[in-house]
Design a protein that fits this description.
The complex is a heterotrimer of chains A (522), B (112) and C (942).
Chain A lengths: L7 H15 L5 H28 L3 E4 L10 E4 L1 H21 L10 H17 L3 H20 L4 H32 L4 H10 L5 H19 L8 H7 L2 H6 L3 H15 L16 H18 L3 H20 L4 H30 L17 H15 L6 H13 L5 H28 L8 H5 L10 H19 L1 H16 L1 H9 L1 H10 L4
Antiparallel strand pairs in A: 1-2
Helix pairs in contact in A: 1-2, 1-4, 2-3, 2-4, 3-4, 3-14, 3-19, 4-5, 5-6, 6-8, 6-9, 7-21, 7-22, 8-11, 9-13, 11-13, 12-13, 12-17, 13-14, 13-17, 14-15, 14-16, 14-19, 14-20, 15-17, 15-19, 21-22
Chain B lengths: L1 H19 L4 H21 L21 H32 L14
Helix pairs in contact in B: 1-2, 2-3
Chain C lengths: L1 H11 L10 H20 L2 H5 L5 E7 L4 E6 L2 H24 L6 H20 L3 H19 L6 H32 L4 H5 L2 H6 L3 H15 L8 H4 L5 H10 L3 H14 L3 H23 L4 H22 L2 H32 L15 H15 L5 H13 L8 H28 L16 H19 L1 H4 L1 H12 L16 H18 L1 H12 L4 H23 L4 H22 L15 H19 L4 H21 L3 H24 L10 H26 L7 H12 L4 H9 L1 H22 L23 H24 L7 H24 L7 H21 L9 E6 L3 E6 H25 L3 H21 L1
Antiparallel strand pairs in C: 1-2, 3-4
Helix pairs in contact in C: 1-2, 1-5, 2-4, 2-5, 4-5, 4-12, 4-16, 4-20, 4-22, 5-6, 6-7, 7-10, 10-13, 12-15, 12-16, 13-15, 14-15, 14-19, 15-16, 15-19, 16-17, 16-18, 16-20, 16-22, 17-19, 17-20, 18-20, 18-23, 19-23, 26-30, 27-28, 28-29, 29-35, 31-32, 32-33, 33-36, 33-37, 34-35, 35-37, 36-37
Classes of the chains: A mainly alpha (522), B mainly alpha (112), C mainly alpha (942).
């Protein structure tokens, strides 16, 4: 019995997106309902898939019923299941937020949103490297549309940088894929891994070059230094729900790095073995440092949050960069936390900014926000979670990461930068909170106040705040169910770190044999 | 033959890179297009060079060119086209928003 | 479970007070919660005082060693008792202290929040759990210090406290993780038992220093002492509770807790003792010169914390006993004194010793209570402070100390004691004696009884303990110290009179010296004034923070300079370097073994044309029209190359895409500036040129590398199964619509998205095209030349027929949905170009959105049909039919899929081109009429 659910997260957004196109000229309410329904349905499906994956084997879905490695195959292991689930939940929340008015600022928002979902999910599911390229393009093109949604000079300029960098990136991606095919003669990732393990020595340099060229592209997607400078503007100037949704986009890059370099260039991959073992950690640590500098140095909450995204990427990849099972498990615990919390911070920042007519999200005194207690509570929660303070999820993730990398070579650096970065985050967010909520302009006797005295600050309806609140509630839940989550993370890390599982699931046990032999039995 | 084709590929990439590094949107678009052509050619080359071996199955024919890269290139061409079309329009929109076709929106020495 | 409830009740119940709007209900609810967990605590007395330790453990996150575990050791009990006991008094006091205009509910919420966190610290059985509560206290103290948000000093004080204690917390977390791993467990009981292992471990020094950093920051030990005085911006009840009695003692609590496992090494002795001594003397000295009552008490607190730290540094059993005893005593008299300072402030309107004097007539009760408190603080006999301080002096004289320590410690101790006496006298006499002050903001009088009760109770404790120590404090100190020391708990007897000994002498010296100091204080003040400026860490801290912000700002300004050119340069060179490294490091050859095929002149010429075209595109890129033409030649040659190397499908596609792309560029150029200004410097052009050449060279090398290598591919499968499996002889097409149909699915989605975005970007976007070219020559007014019109209109049906043919043969011969779609779109566009939108639009008024969507649905539907037969998505089937005239032909499900492709291509390309064509303002007007309809529909929903 084929498990058609696996392609659900792809076909459903595609279909609903199309339906939304058909409703282009209908009242917007209809498109909203379609979009929200789609996200909800995808969420349900991904939750089912997640539970299937928890104690099930790696599932595959062969499109067109052609035998692997000839047809295109979707692969659902624990990690991809988790990524799908995170994406679906985040998407639903962001769309709910956008449906409060952001989606009116331009055309075709809802259709693009669905295709965005399609692209991201495809990148998580596909087991074919060229198909990965296709899904990247879907993801990027829709993201271009969403970044530019609403228009405006700053947004357009930031969008243009983002677009052009990624267009060059796409070309480079194709070159990398081309080399792999030209030497190994296949596109299926599992098959690539097997053939890589058997590749003769004279192809070593060429194959490694392919791997590193691809790494450059993935690094651009993940926003790894020195390729991360498109991010602060793009995320800082786009509309809040889009920025929040994009908290997952960098993680797509992280996921693909984890996938490709633990499978095709895994430690058992012969000439390509452990390609990134020397590269990833330093790059990630520098990224972490730069992100921290940005967090400390920015004077606007949106930009601070954008740099927090860079920091979280640096942290993730630094931990992954040790390529140890436990560390990867820790990264898997950290990933949902950082995704949801940075997204939440984007939404909270927007809520705050909309009630500070003069200063917006900038770190300058303004009149008090309309709902100080509510917004203050939301901000405090987000800040505590992101700052890695107990009792929220950031603390658990941080402890687990520090614990698991303890014995790796780079441990002192990771510890230093993660803790130091944490302190900088604490300082930056402490400053932000005290300026925005405490350091107020005297209500009346100021120029700005008199100027805008007529314009009362908008009061947020519960429906405006609800999405952000839901995101924040996730954090304590991640802590309360921390036991289960960490267990799951270790199980997921098992599948990731040991490619043999993946290859067996895709090609069958006999094909994975050569890899086992080349890895000396493992 | 291989030398020539590689050279062509190299030249296209070189020109593409140079154009992409210009300061105005239009040359950047030219560069991206050129790179696109080049990469399609490269992808095609991954099937190696074959003369007079079309991929139409017929009894008489025993040898065929590698069809897979061709299929990939087709997909790549289409996607590339979509991207170029988009970036062209984006450049127009940027011109409208920023009132200059400089990639960073700089206004100094405005377009003639 | 009751154990867990003790801290959890205040934590979870914290929100309750702020739901009431009545000040009494605020206070009562808070008081009740505190009282309940106090009762729960007292239930543990029987066990604790018989020396065993109730423990409650549940697993939480085993992966990181975090468990939900609580313990009530004697020491923890002592602290919990202080927290809840004093806490209750504070709740009572605050009811009268907090002004009407302040949000009292919020105050009590924060207070309970803190109470719970603090209880968590002292009752945790698990190191990480302790850490959790530890940071929670930092957060709650941040909120409480900043309670009067409108005051700048409150904001700064809160921020400073958060950063210092929070930062220390991070260090301590690191230390705990190390300690836990050395000890092999995070359960305190196990950790405390692992002294040998820990001391033997190479990481012991690091661990110790990290943990001490946490403890010292929290307890405001030198050089971190400066945050505490500035925390005094908090409401006085908070200062009394957090910043003298409990929270700041969390640091010394942790030290005491760690004595059994970390203590006993020279490193421990040196660091802790030195820090303690410096803090003790320095802070006592500073306290003498504070005019602000709370400032004086703050420094005195720091000094006393230093005293306790010093004792724990010495670490002998009796020292520990003294430390525990002093923790208890200090909490009692210092909290009381703060509350009294609060009363004075509240009733007179100032806390400035310079202004206050002679209050004893107006406020006799307060005066007496203050007398008791100062007695304790100065260590006067019959007050509790005297006993513990004398034990302390005795310890500094202990024979165990060798070398310089044997005289430094006593001297330091006595010196500090002298200062302490001096500032105690100053506080008491300065405020209550002398002639009554006149110019006070309010006329002083006794406060409401409720406000006096709390300090009165505390002072009573001071006296009772001072006179009957064995009875009132003995059991507690026994239990507390016993929990730390375990077996080597010394036998001791607490009494007022120990007989005449050295410690007593020193005490007397201190009292006398203090009196003298007070007598001649004015000289000291003059001496002090000049150095006082440099002794406050606040300025240093703030300059540090602002400098850090500056630095961060510079870094990102430097890195993220907003120049796309630089980002691209970095990206491309990074890729280049990454691609080159493997060849650089490994000795493997670049080229493979396969021999190059011979070169024929035709190909050579083609190649040369291509190269020339590419270079020309660069050369002419300033003259935009010209460069487009050059570019198109490149595209065409690439297409020819595809035909040359047996890829007819590619050739067809390339050409049709080529055509549409050029049309697009031309349309864009109609609106863009026609020329590119010369602006990049020669140096930059050189730099870019170099990178371009390198990139090109690298690319060519890669191409050569793969062309000369053998490979075996999975393609044989496609060739083998194309006809039997896919039902088509054109393998490329079968791959596209069948073997890798999913790619095509994605590909057309990309097209559709592009259509959507372009539509969105250009929606309502108008731009007037220039009437003249760059040389000022006017464009022709004849926008639709007759010839073009006359050619294109009849061309249309033919072209459509042709594309239909291309489509149908696609599955078996070069062609297919995509090419057919492009051809159709091109000819339709040609109509727009030739006859203009005004003529064309009414003639093809189908909505391109819909065509696109239908195409997607068709493709999707084709794929889904296979579900019915329980095959995976996109599984294809085909059947041969015999029809008269046409003969045998085939219908493959893949063709329906291809039809979908066709529709999407037509729809999206039309969407782009028509929208693009209608930007130009003249045409736009005519188009916008049709757009208006959508607009109105939009509006209705708004």
């Amino acid at each position: 019995m084929i498990n058609h659910l696996i392609v659900g997260p792809l076909l459903l957004p595609l279909f609903m997106g199309t339906m939304i196109i058909l409703n282009t000229n209908q009242p917007i309410a209809r498109r909203r309902i379609l979009g929200l329904f789609s996200c909800l349905a995808v969420l349900v499906i991904t939750i089912i898939l997640l539970f299937q994956s928890v104690d099930g084997p790696i599932q595959t879905y062969v499109l067109g019923d052609w035998p692997t490695p000839f047809g295109i195959v979707m692969v659902l292991d624990r990690l991809s299941a988790m990524m799908l689930c995170i994406t679906a939940l985040l998407a639903l929340i962001c769309l709910a937020y956008a449906a409060r008015g952001t989606d009116r600022q331009g055309k075709n928002f809802h259709a693009l949103f669905q295709f965005q979902l399609l692209g991201i999910n495809g990148a998580f599911l596909t087991g074919d490297i060229f198909n990965l390229f296709v899904f990247f393009e879907i993801m990027l093109l829709s993201s271009y549309g969403l970044v530019l949604h609403g228009g405006g000079g700053l947004r357009t300029r930031a969008g243009m940088h983002y677009v052009m960098l990624n267009l060059v990136g796409s070309s480079i991606f194709l070159v990398g894929v081309g080399i792999l095919y030209a030497v190994l003669g296949t596109l299926n990732m599992a098959d690539l891994a097997v053939r890589m393990a058997q590749a003769p020595a004279e192809n070593a340099a060429l194959l490694q070059a392919a791997g590193l060229i691809l790494f450059a592209v993935f690094a651009l997607k993940a926003a790894l230094l020195p390729l991360c400078f498109w991010l602060p503007d793009a995320y800082g100037f786009t509309s809040a729900p889009v920025a929040a949704l994009f908290a997952i986009m960098t993680k797509v890059g992280v996921y693909v790095i984890l996938r490709v370099y633990c499978l095709i260039f895994s430690n058992f991959a012969g000439v390509g073995a452990g390609l990134l073992n020397t590269w990833l950690l330093p790059a990630a640590l520098i990224t972490l440092a730069a992100g921290a500098a940005g967090v400390a140095g920015s004077r606007d909450l949106r930009r601070i949050t954008a740099y927090l995204v860079i920091m979280s990427v640096g942290t993730l990849l630094a931990v992954i960069g040790t390529f140890q099972r436990e560390a990867i498990a820790a990264a898997i615990v950290y990933l949902p936390h950082t995704t949801f919390m940075t997204a939440a911070m984007f939404l909270v920042a927007d809520l705050i900014g909309r009630q500070r007519p003069d200063a917006g999200t900038g770190l300058v005194p303004d009149r008090p926000v309309g709902q100080p207690t509510l917004l203050g509570l939301l901000f405090l929660t987000a800040a505590v979670a992101i700052g890695g303070l107990p009792p929220l999820s950031g603390f658990v993730a941080k402890v687990m990461m520090l614990t698991t990398v303890k014995d790796s070579a780079g441990a002192p650096w990771i510890w230093g930068l993660v803790l130091g970065g944490g302190l900088l985050t604490l300082i930056a967010l402490g400053r932000t909170g005290s300026v925005i909520f405490w350091k107020l302009l005297p209500a009346d006797d100021t120029e700005t106040a008199r100027k805008t005295a007529h314009a009362p600050v908008p009061v947020h309806a519960p429906a405006d705040v609800f999405p952000a609140a839901v995101l924040l509630v996730i954090s304590p839940l991640l802590v309360i169910f921390g036991g289960m989550i960490t267990e799951f993370a270790f199980a997921a890390a098992d599948h990731v770190i040991n490619p043999v599982h993946y290859i067996e699931a895709v090609l069958g046990p006999d094909r994975s044999l050569p890899l086992l032999l080349s890895s000396g039995g493992e | 033959m291989e030398w020539l084709v590689s050279a062509c590929f190299g030249v296209m990439i070189a020109c593409g890179v140079y154009l992409v590094l210009r300061a105005r949107t239009f040359p950047v678009i030219l560069g991206l297009t050129l790179m696109g052509y080049a990469v399609n050619l490269f992808l095609f080359l991954t099937g190696r060079l074959h003369t007079n071996l079309p991929d139409i199955i017929s009894g008489s024919q025993t040898q065929y060119a590698d069809p897979l890269p061709q299929a990939l290139v087709l997909t790549a061409i289409v996607i590339g086209f979509a991207m170029i079309a988009f970036v062209v329009v984006l450049s127009l929109r940027a011109l409208g928003e920023l009132d200059t076709d400089h990639v960073d929106g700089h206004k100094e020495n405005p377009p003639s | 479970m009751t154990l867990a409830l003790i801290p959890l009740l205040p934590l979870l119940g914290a929100f309750i007070p702020c739901i009431f709007h009545n000040r009494n209900l605020n206070a009562v609810s808070a008081g009740l919660i505190a009282a309940i967990s106090l009762i729960l605590l007292l239930l543990q007395v029987p066990q604790v005082f018989t020396g065993d330790m109730p423990v409650y453990t549940r697993d939480w996150i085993p992966a990181i060693g975090l468990s939900f575990a609580f313990r009530v050791s004697g020491f923890g009990f002592l602290f919990a008792l202080l927290v809840l006991g004093i806490g209750l008094l504070i709740v009572l006091y605050a009811r009268y202290y907090i002004a009407k205009e302040d949000p009292m509910g919020r105050f009590y919420t924060y207070l309970l929040f803190f109470m719970g966190s603090m209880l968590g610290i002292v009752l945790s059985e698990n190191l990480l759990l302790l850490m959790v509560f530890w940071e929670l206290t930092s957060i709650s103290s941040f909120l409480l210090i900043g309670f009067w948000r409108h005051r700048a000093d409150a904001r700064q004080g809160a921020f400073m406290a958060l950063v210092i204690t929070g930062g220390g917390g991070f260090a301590m977390l690191a230390g705990f993780i190390l300690l836990g791993h050395i000890a092999g467990s995070f359960e305190l009981t196990a950790v405390l038992a692992a002294k040998e292992t820990v001391h033997a471990h190479p990481l012991y020094p690091v661990t110790l220093i990290l943990i001490l950093a946490g403890a010292f920051t929290k307890s405001a030990q030198f050089p971190f002492q400066f945050w505490l005085p500035h925390a005094m911006a908090a409401p006085t009840p908070v200062s009394a509770f957090l910043h003298s009695a409990t929270m700041v003692k969390a640091g010394v609590f942790l030290l005491a807790l760690m004595v059994p496992v970390l203590g006993g090494s020279t490193l421990w002795f040196t660091i802790v003792t030195t820090t303690g001594l410096i803090t003790l003397v320095f802070a006592a000295y500073m306290a003498m010169f504070k005019d602000d009552l709370k400032g004086l008490l703050a420094y005195s607190t720091v000094s006393h914390l230093g005293l306790i730290t010093l004792l724990l540094g010495i670490g002998t059993p009796m020292a520990v006993v003294a430390a525990v005893f002093h923790i208890f005593n200090h909490a009692a008299f210092k909290a009381g004194l703060f509350l009294l300072a609060g009363i004075i402030d509240h009733e007179t309107g100032t806390r400035d010793i310079q202004r206050l004097s002679g209050l004893k007539k107006a406020m006799p009760v307060t005066a007496v209570l203050t007398l008791i408190g100062c007695g304790g603080m100065a260590g006067v006999p019959l007050f509790n402070g005297f006993l513990s301080k004398e034990m302390f002096l005795a310890e500094t004289l202990a024979p165990g100390l060798t070398g310089a320590w044997s005289w430094i410690l006593p001297v330091g101790a006595v010196l500090a004691a002298v200062f302490a006496v001096a500032y105690s006298i100053r506080m008491l006499v300065g405020v209550f004696w002398g002639k009554p002050a006149q110019d006070l903001p309010r006329s002083p009088h006794e406060p409401p009884v409720g406000m006096t009760l709390s300090p009165a109770f505390l002072m009573a404790v001071c006296v009772l303990v001072g006179i009957f120590p064995a009875f009132f404090a003995g059991p507690l100190v026994h239990a507390g110290a016993g929990a730390i020391l375990g077996p080597d708990m010394p036998a001791f007897h607490m009494a007022v009179w120990h007989g005449f000994n050295m410690a007593l002498v020193l005490s007397m010296v201190a009292l006398a010296g203090g009196a003298v100091f007070y007598r001649y204080r004015h000289r000291l003040f003059d001496a002090h004034v000049w150095c006082s400026r440099y002794l406050d860490g606040k300025t240093l801290f703030e300059s540090l923070v602002s400098r850090m912000v500056q630095a961060g700002n510079h870094v990102i300004r430097f890195l993220e300079n907003g120049s796309l050119q630089r980002y691209l340069f970095v990206f491309i060179s990074a890729t280049l370097v990454l691609g080159a490294i493997p060849f650089a490091v490994s000795k493997t050859p670049l080229l493979g073994t396969v021999a190059a095929t011979p070169l024929d002149p035709v190909t050579l010429i083609m190649g040369l044309i291509l190269i020339i075209g590419a270079v020309a595109t660069v050369k002419t890129h300033r003259n935009r029209i010209l460069s487009i033409i050059m570019l198109s030649t490149v595209g065409l040659v690439v297409a020819l190359a595809f035909t040359r190397f047996s890829a007819p499908d590619l050739a067809l596609t390339q050409i049709s895409v080529e055509v549409v792309t050029i049309i697009l560029l031309m349309m864009a150029l109609h609106l863009l500036p026609p020329t590119t200004p010369k602006e990049s410097s020669k140096a930059r052009r050189r730099r870019d040129g170099l990178l371009a050449v390198l990139a090109g060279g690298g690319a060519a090398a890669l191409a050569m590398a793969i062309l000369t290598r053998p490979y075996d591919t999975i393609s044989d499968f496609f060739l083998a199964y194309s006809v039997p499996g896919g039902g088509g002889t054109n393998v490329v097409n079968v791959i596209l619509v069948d073997f890798r149909g999913f790619d095509t699915m994605g590909e057309i989605t990309v097209l559709a998205i592009a259509g959507l975005i372009i539509y969105a970007l250009l929606h309502g976007f108008e731009r007037h095209a220039p009437d003249t070219d760059e040389m000022g020559r006017p464009w022709t007014k004849d926008r639709f030349p007759m010839i073009l019109v006359n050619i294109t209109r009849p061309l249309l049906p033919l072209a459509l027929l042709f594309s239909a043919y291309i489509f149908l043969r696609g599955h078996n011969d070069p062609g297919g949905g995509f090419i057919a779609g492009l051809i159709t779109a091109t000819v339709l566009t040609l109509q727009y170009i030739a006859s203009g939108i005004v003529w064309t639009r009414p003639r093809f008024h189908f909505d391109n959105h819909v065509i696109m969507a239908l195409g997607l649905i068709l493709a999707l539907g084709t794929g889904l049909t296979s579900w019915a037969l329980n095959y995976p998505f996109l599984t294809s089937t085909y059947e041969y039919f015999k029809l008269p005239l046409i003969g045998k032909f085939e219908i493959a499900s893949a063709m329906a899929f291809d039809m979908g492709v066709f529709l999407v291509v037509v729809g999206s390309v039309m969407l782009m081109l028509v929208k693009l064509g209608s930007i130009n303002s003249e045409d736009a007007r005519t188009v916008s009429t049709s757009v208006l309809v959508e607009e109105n529909l939009e509006k209705e929903t708004h």
